[in-house]
Amino acid sequence: MQTTSEHRIDDGALERRSTLGGVPGVLWTPPPAPAPAPLVLLGHPGGLARMYPRLLARARHCLAAGYAAAALELPGAGERPPSAAAEAARADLHRALAAGRPVDDGIVDRLVLPLVEAAVPEWRAALDELLALPGLGGPVGISGGIVSIGVRLAAVDPRVAAAVLFAGSHVPRLVLEEARRVTVPLLVLLQWDDEGNDRQAALDLFDALGSREKTLHANTGGHTGVPAFEADDVDRFLARHLG
Amino acid sequence: MQTTSEHRIDDGALERRSTLGGVPGVLWTPPPAPAPAPLVLLGHPGGLARMYPRLLARARHCLAAGYAAAALELPGAGERPPSAAAEAARADLHRALAAGRPVDDGIVDRLVLPLVEAAVPEWRAALDELLALPGLGGPVGISGGIVSIGVRLAAVDPRVAAAVLFAGSHVPRLVLEEARRVTVPLLVLLQWDDEGNDRQAALDLFDALGSREKTLHANTGGHTGVPAFEADDVDRFLARHLG
Question: Which domain of life is it from (chains A, B) (predicted)?
Fold first, then answer.
């Protein structure tokens, strides 16, 4: 982990721009406390610089609860080298949505699977580094971002204790199968009128997830219209499971 | 409103056994306050005596928020005269469920529509009486019970300001149509593995409800397995809308 800048924010919390798991990231840590802090991995759609204000707001919720929070740049996004194959798949997706055509599995696989294949090992390497830091080492939560990344990470990494998933993007069949292997408590957010995502597919994902304790919060409105009160519900869910 | 007994509970709150809207009921009121108290109508599956411990627990949540709460006996339940037609329809329903057969619309109509037709005017008459009491007169919320009663009451009575609906029983097509006329904020609870209710029908009901602000909370587990944390979510929903 290589830190390029750091500064204090809010009541002694620290924000660091660092290389985490080999890729650019941001780490927020609360002031030192007697017990190791839980850590929340903050997902996002890619583009750390653009997403920074919203990530900082979400990190502040974590810091207020005594948790650390971290965000990693996604493969192909922000200042990372773009993927021509992903861009082509994304263009196909947008053409299908614009034409009102169903989005076929081939497009979803080409767009999402390479992202999952690249991002999950990066997140796991970042976890290795983060959990070795002084003051960290409590349970790990996932919150939001590309849902297929969250599903696979929760399925394969035993350090993940709970996950908030936003059922807001297309899920490859392979990941839908992997969802059955997830066992940690889940809060799944769904925008009922999401213009870029299929409602039935999102409900199928919720159904497929193997966790005994899973809750779906569906709200009216489009992709970006998640109501403000859901941020409090996320806090309460994480508090129940990260302590 | 004719009161047969009353006694103090908890910090000056009052419980009254009364005839409300012409039928047996229980009313819980908080200690006098400067502003008129909001009122929550507590729904239940019928049988006030049997349901009393759980109703009291829910009423205590309301009282803690400064609300009054009331519950009415359902038509044909508890000490009210039974309905032979409803009993016959219920037997047909149980036979269909036991045999794994789909529950046809005819059974649902015979079981639920007469209940809705009888109960909604009783609830409205009870509201007339309750809102005229000293100390009451704030906004009215509905919480739980037979979902078709809640839907029709929310659709037809402008005094209802918000409703918590438990999508846990069969809904006649007529009530599904009426659902489009509901406009108040809604929290809809759904048990994902409800053994006595069709999941897709419950999702169709959520979709049909006309409210701009509606939230679905779906949890794993059977009909009676609503997680304890949903009681807090109900409190927060009512606090947002009843003040």
Answer: Bacteria
Instruction: Using DSSP, state whether B195 is helix, strand or coil.
Output: coil
Q: Show me where the domains of chain B are located.
A: 2-242
Q: Write the ipTM.
A: 0.90
In this prediction, residue B169 has a pLDDT band, given cuts at 50, 70 and 90, of: confident
**What are residue A91's phi and psi, to 5 degrees?**
-65, -40
Instruction: Taking residues B101-109, report their average pLDDT.
Output: 89
Given the candidates 2.60.120.1440, 3.40.50.1820, 3.40.50.300, 3.30.930.10, the CATH classification of the domain at B2-242 is: 3.40.50.1820
The closest alpha carbon to A23, from A120, A133, A157, belongs to: A120
| Closest A-chain CA to B203 | A203
Asked if A192's CB is within 8 angstroms of B216's CB, the reply is: yes
Taking any CB pair shorter than 8 Å as contact, residues of chain A touching chain B are 192, 203, 206-207, 211-220, 227, 229, 232-233, 236, 240
CATH code for the domain defined by A2-80+119-242: 3.40.50.1820
Measured between beta carbons, which residues in chain A are less than 8 angstroms from residue B236? 229, 232
Q: Which residue type occupies B41?
A: L
Show the DSSP H helices in chain A as ranges: 48-64, 84-98, 105-131, 147-156, 173-179, 199-208, 229-242
State the CB neighbour count (10 A cutoff) for residue B12: 11
- pLDDT, residue A160, reads 98
> What's the pLDDT score for residue B178?
97
CB contacts of B232 in chain A (<8 Å) are 236
- Integer Cα distance of B191 and B226 in angstroms: 7
Whole-angstrom distance, CA of residue B5 vs CA of residue B33:
23
Closest of A176, A190, A180, A182 to residue A156, by C-alpha: A182
Residue A74 has pLDDT above 90, yes or no: yes
Q: Which residues of A touch B207 (CB under 8 A)?
A: 192
For A2, B42, B191, B236, the CA distances from B225, given in Å and listed in that order, are: 48, 18, 7, 20
Q: Determine how many CB atoms are found less than 10 A away from the CB of residue B162.
A: 23
